[in-house]
Write a structure and sequence with these properties.
The protein contains eleven helices and ten strands. By secondary structure, it is α/β, with parallel strands linked by helices. The protein folds into two domains: 2-92 and 215-252; 98-212, no CATH class. The protein starts with a strand and ends in a 6-residue tail after the last strand.
């Protein structure tokens, strides 16, 4: 099959690694990380890229996003089916299954997850990398230059009111974290991610943990093995909606709202 992949850039390394092994022909397109920071705006960008895919060219569009704050709610398959792994967010992709994601979520241990993509996305776009410790520790960062730079960038993109809201929300949720968890793969060990995340955790006073990643879900998605409850297939004319159950998301017929 000839397949189009539209995915968040945090999945770039893992997707490219598996695309080289897929029996399918894959056209890859990666969108900038951060669309879920402003879901309404981000959803519009994702829909634009879906709509830009030529009709009749691909057997399916593989959409590499989780529900991510309902960023996929209302996304429509125009003329080509969408295939989406059922995931609350991209951490499910790296852990390999909804079940493993849920097991770790139920621990309630205040874990913040890191992968190669999360650590690289700013640098990949050619932007100045903002230290993670300054970005996500408002109590320590205060009115640091880095934090002001984040506000300025978001204000330019989303407006000052939205930028201020995003920083306030960040201040709230970061207080719940006290453990940094690196999801590592054998092929990413050369990147020295362990040392980088250990340094971030030390700066924040967090515990450090490393867990083995699982590429099973991504591998099946890119290989065209979708005959499973792990994948949502959205037919032309249908739209994505949250299902508020273990399946995470569902498709709705044209003209039907959730």
């Amino acid at each position: 099959m000839l397949l189009k992949v539209i995915a968040c850039e945090v999945l770039l390394r893992e997707t490219c690694f598996l695309a080289a092994q897929s029996p399918q022909i894959l056209d890859l397109e990666f969108l900038p990380q951060g669309y879920h920071d402003a879901p309404a705006t981000g959803k519009g960008f994702i829909q634009e890229r879906i709509d830009a895919v030529p009709a009749g060219k691909y057997a399916a569009i593989l959409l590499g996003y989780g529900l991510c704050g309902n960023i996929l709610d209302g996304i429509i398959a125009r003329h080509t089916p969408l295939v989406i792994p059922r995931a609350h967010d991209c951490i499910t992709y790296f852990l390999g299954s909804r079940e493993r994601y849920q097991e770790r979520a139920q621990k309630g241990d205040g874990a913040y997850y890191y992968t190669a993509g999360w650590l690289e996305c700013l640098a990949r776009r050619g932007e100045k990398e903002i230290p993670q410790s300054s970005l996500f520790l408002p109590s320590r960062a205060g009115l640091s230059p880095e934090r002001n730079a984040v506000f300025a960038e978001w204000a330019k993109k989303y407006g000052e009111e939205e930028a201020r809201y995003l920083l306030e929300e960040m201040d709230k949720w970061t207080q719940a974290y006290h453990r940094g968890v690196l999801i590592e793969f054998d092929f990413t060990r050369v990147l020295g991610l362990r040392e980088r995340v250990q340094k971030i955790c030390a700066e924040r006073g967090w515990e450090f943990e490393e867990v083995a990643g699982d590429l099973g879900l991504l591998r099946r998605w890119l290989a065209g093995e979708w005959d499973s409850p792990d994948f949502l297939v959205v037919r032309p004319g249908e739209q994505v909606a949250p299902s508020y159950d273990a399946l995470v998301m569902k498709s709705l017929p044209p003209g039907i709202s959730a």
